[in-house]
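Team,

Forwarding the record for the chain on the shared tracking sheet. I've put the sequence and predicted structure together so nobody has to dig through attachments.
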Amino acid sequence: MKLNIYLFRHGEIASRKNILCGWVNLPLSRKGLNDSKKLSEKLRVERIDVAFCSDLLRSQQNLVEVLKYHPDAKVIIDPRLRERHFGALSGELKSIFADTSALQTFNGGFVEGVPGLESMETIQKRIFPFMSDVLKLMQEERVNVAISAHTESSRFIQEYLEGITPDMSELLKKKSTEYKKYVLNFD
């Protein structure tokens, strides 16, 4: 039996500053909500039975829009889908990394000495079991799944499903109005 996963991420947050948002619980901006509506139109023709989002408001708002054409879809809020936690840097301006190489190092997870900063390994350790649970649910209940993710959680979902490394992820290059469809065979 063939079943589908629809993976997408939320759009722009409502913040006047270019900040390291992470676990800061901000809503989508007007543009972010409009992007969610565009995504919803694209997913209108797909069958979504179960939909996942994180417990962060922006992920939930994104999913609410997408599910306007899927009113019978079961919604599951799972904190394992959260964005990377930036610890003591949460809410700080990204401009603190004026040097591009410093930001790349930070995004690669090699920065030490930042209290509470979540490593890439830690993100992987929460996303991979989440995905294992999703596949089990799909197989047992024979359902198509939508996942409203964040930038980093999307990377690791792609790594899990495609066997690629997070730095090879293509989803991040796509707009928040796009989604990635995975067709899985369950025997």
